[in-house]
């Protein structure tokens, strides 16, 4: 079975706009939180760190497509909510003419390191991270997976763990719907698609993200909705069915910002995705201060880079 397997839609669901307005009208969302949010409740349970990153320490590294290669900055201080980056290294070759939108970093085999994935022709080409120490060549050997992907918008494809098994699943916008293919075998085999969203036909795919905001290993569905972010919490992990619960809203002041310059990635290493933004020359991240029933709050922004004004944000990744 390929990842391009067809699916038959069930009865029509409300559009994204209708769902968002209904949630507002019924008061089902938490009070919209500003970027300088509150801290997590003191009674929050301790986390068992189970995330993945380029180095395998749960803290996302900064990766930039640089000419023919990738430059990677090691995250050494993210846990302190300070400037996170230490030394950098360059890996890979032959990437100069590759569309940066076709490049993804995802933990396909669940062993804690981010693997390199490229949409290439009709399928995906993938390189497992071999566990090498920082500075050594991390990618040895490659394989092909999936089929029927030629002509699909690479910005409308995501890799994130929906079912909570630590292996990245494959998500795609197909026409009006979002659907995901469960990872059945270290990124080499995929289940039939499951619908995880309706009403997305005219929506900018760069303004949709999948990231774990509450540390339960299951990715939430996040989308920019006007001035804020609308979050659909992943309450069930799918299990072959619909994974998301009642939406809520977080953040303020985000209308007009380029969604390609917004990321959700775990910079601090606490299993909760932080909010990262490129504004002009600077990179900044807002630590996730806690996410629970109907809310996510954010700490004040922390500087994470300068000199980025001329860099295409589509060639910036956090892995």
Automatic annotation (TrEMBL):
A single Pfam family, by name? FG-GAP_3
Q: Which domain of life is it from?
A: Bacteria
Q: Which InterPro entries match?
A: FG-GAP, Integrin_alpha_N
**Does Chaperone show up as a keyword for this record?**
no
Keywords for this entry? Signal
Q: Mark the transmembrane ranges.
A: none
Q: What is this protein called?
A: VCBS repeat-containing protein
Organism this protein belongs to: Streptomyces gardneri
């Amino acid at each position: 079975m390929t990842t391009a397997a067809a699916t038959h839609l069930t009865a029509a669901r409300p559009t994204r706009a209708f769902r968002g307005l209904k949630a507002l009208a019924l008061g089902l969302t938490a009070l919209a939180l500003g970027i300088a949010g509150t801290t997590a409740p003191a009674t929050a349970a301790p986390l068992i760190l189970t995330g993945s990153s380029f180095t395998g320490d749960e803290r996302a590294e900064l990766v930039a497509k640089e000419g023919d290669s990738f430059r990677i900055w090691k995250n050494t201080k993210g846990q302190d909510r300070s400037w996170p980056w230490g030394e950098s290294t360059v890996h890979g070759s032959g990437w100069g003419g590759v569309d940066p939108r076709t490049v993804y970093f995802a933990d396909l085999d669940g062993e804690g390191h981010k693997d390199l994935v490229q949409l290439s022709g009709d399928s995906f080409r993938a390189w497992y991270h071999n566990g090498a120490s920082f500075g050594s060549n991390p990618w040895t050997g490659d394989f092909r997976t999936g089929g029927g992907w030629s002509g699909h918008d690479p910005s409308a494809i995501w890799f994130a763990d929906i079912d909570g098994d630590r292996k990245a699943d494959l998500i795609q916008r197909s026409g009006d719907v979002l659907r995901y293919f469960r990872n059945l075998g270290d990124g080499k085999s995929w289940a039939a698609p499951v619908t995880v969203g309706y009403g997305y036909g005219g929506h900018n795919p760069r303004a949709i993200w999948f990231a774990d905001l509450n540390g339960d290993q299951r990715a939430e569905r996040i989308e920019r909705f006007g001035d804020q972010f609308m979050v659909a919490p992943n309450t069930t992990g799918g299990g072959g069915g619909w994974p998301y619960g009642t939406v809520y809203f977080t953040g303020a002041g985000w209308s007009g910002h380029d969604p390609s310059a917004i990321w959700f990635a775990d910079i601090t290493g606490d299993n909760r995705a932080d909010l990262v933004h490129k504004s002009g020359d600077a990179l900044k991240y807002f630590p996730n201060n806690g996410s629970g029933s109907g809310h996510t709050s954010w700490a004040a922004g922390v500087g994470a880079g300068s000199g980025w004004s001329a860099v295409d944000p589509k060639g910036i990744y956090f892995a």
